[in-house]
Write a structure and sequence with these properties.
Radius of gyration: 18 Å
Strand content: under 5%
Number of strands: 0
Structural class: mainly alpha
Number of helices: 6
Length: 169
């Protein structure tokens, strides 16, 4: 049960992110069939660079990915049946988290859903430009989770941060 929660937590999140890349990539790749102006090309480069930094590095690599792995490790060491069954949402900080972590997790999710709804209304090539940046950010996020997974397995002392569970001080 200990290993199951760890694997299910991280694996479930990786499946969710991979599914998003799988759904968004075709919209972004459709750009190659469209005539793009210089403005479109500039927006595409900006979108990809900005999302690589803001979503990929700042959001995933410095925040979400290490927290997911730390919370999965906490779950491995402190398994509870309900937490193990709901491991992906446990690892994302939706349940059994500090009040601050829950508020941030729910708030960020609401913001992401809002952006997704707006992005879906954009016509091509603008939707593809936005989706190309998101795909880059998500790919970096997937890589970051894999990186921190390797760190926690082989050098756990290098990953020192709070699991942000209610018992933390």
């Amino acid at each position: 049960m200990k290993a199951f929660g760890f694997v299910w937590g991280i694996g479930g999140i990786l499946l969710l992110l991979t599914s998003a890349v799988y759904r968004l990539a075709p919209v972004a790749l459709a750009l190659e069939c469209l005539p793009l102006s210089l403005l479109h090309w500039a927006a595409l480069v900006f979108s990809m660079l900005y999302m690589a930094y803001a979503e990929g590095y700042k959001g995933f690599h410095q925040g979400f990915a290490p927290r997911v792995v730390i919370r999965a490790d906490y779950l491995r060491q402190n398994p509870r049946v309900l937490h193990v069954l709901l491991a992906p949402i446990f690892c994302m900080g939706y349940i059994y988290a500090t009040r601050r972590r829950k508020l941030l997790s729910y708030g960020l999710s609401l913001m992401i859903v809002s952006f997704v709804l707006v992005a879906r209304m954009l016509p091509q090539p603008w939707r593809g430009i936005v989706d190309a940046g998101v795909v880059i950010g998500l790919a970096i996020g997937i890589g970051s989770i894999m990186y921190f997974l390797i760190v926690i397995i082989f050098k756990p002392e290098r990953l020192v941060a709070s699991a942000e569970v209610p018992t933390d001080s």
